[in-house]
Amino acid sequence: MSNVEKLLRSRDYSTIRAESSPSGDNHWLYMHDNIGSGMRPCFRNDLLDDMWSFTSSIIKRDSERRPGQLRHFVLASAASAFNLGGDLELFSQLIRANDREHLLAYARRCVDGVYGLHTGLGGDVRTIALVQGDALGGGLEMALACHTIVAEEGVGMGLPEVLFGLFPGMGAYSFLCKRVTPQLAEKIILDGNIYTSDEMYKMGVVDVLVPKGQGEIAVQELIRQQQRAPQAHLAMNSVRNIAQRVGYDELMGITEVWVDTALALGDKSLRMMERIVRAQERRLGASNAA
Fold first, then answer.
1. pLDDT at 260
2. N or C: which terminus of the chain carries fewer CB neighbours within 10 A?
């Protein structure tokens, strides 16, 4: 019955809202909880700090796990967007400074996070992305790392990095290839189009598509269904980590290609990146005024 317990807020964070059931079986993390303060809904370092602090706190050691205990982690957003991706303002600054060390450090932190979600936060957790607003670039990558993507209708989802000469370098290709053919994965990446969640569902990228406003209810029902057969879903986590595993070394190898590609970008690409940052800021201002 853990899935129907009242969720309690965890300790205060500056960028997220984290809630857990008293039993510790059910955890929800809402990104961008303070978006009204003017922060863009992207993966800033402070957001990554809070996200990985919380997810690390719910990972159990082998000695702490109870046989047959299936837990759930839901990644959602408190903002109108799920996540608009990497911190392009930071990328531009680091690229202009030719600062490979810090760009790689940022990429590694993202890889650590998506790898944790992909492997079930130690193996006993089913991870669910609840996409109720646009998921672009790294935002979509983070959703793809989860076991299940639940999306509301009419949401924008895509990988637009090609617009400024880059590709999504924190797992998108690897995770997409577990859901669609490599040919379709490359098309999605290289076209740079923004698809609707409805289109992504038809392609097989989104697992569960629900009407606008029904996302949380759908996730709660999914958790209830999986808790009826916890042993089977725990076993499926193990099977998935054997048959559909994306290795850490694979993710890091790809992200190093991403870093080197980013550092080779010219001024035209960087100015496009900076224009996108300004567009995100305008979007945030319009959202706050609504």
1. 98
2. C
Catalytic residue among 19, 101, 141, 186: 141
Of 47, 29, 139, residue with least CA distance to 86: 139
* Mean pLDDT within 132-140: 97
Topology of domain 2-289 in CATH is 2-enoyl-CoA Hydratase; Chain A, domain 1 (3.90.226)
- H-state helical runs in 192-229: 197-203, 215-227
Q: Is 161 a catalytic residue?
A: yes
The span from the CA of 268 to the CA of 204, in Å, is 35
Confidence at residue 3, expressed as pLDDT on a 0 to 100 scale: 41
| More confidently predicted of 2 and 108 | 108
For the chain, domain boundaries: 2-289
Cα–chain center distance at 2: 24
Active site residue 141: yes
- List pLDDT tens digits, range 233-273: 999 999 999 999 999 999 999 999 999 999 999 999 999 99
Q: What is the largest CA-CA distance in the chain?
A: 56
SS3 of 5-68: CCCEECCCCCCEEEEECCCCCEEEEEECCCHHHCCCCCECHHHHHHHHHHHHHHCCCHHHCCCC
* Mean pLDDT, residues 61-78 taken together: 93
Helix (H), strand (E), coil (C) string for 113-151 = HHHHHHCCCCCCEEEEEEECCCEECHHHHHHHCCCEEEE
Query: Of 64, 152, 153, 161, which one is the catalytic site residue?
Result: 161
- Has this prediction a pTM greater than 0.85? yes
User: What is the rounded CA–CA span in Å between residue 290 and residue 54?
Assistant: 31
Contact 272, 95 (CB under 8 A): no
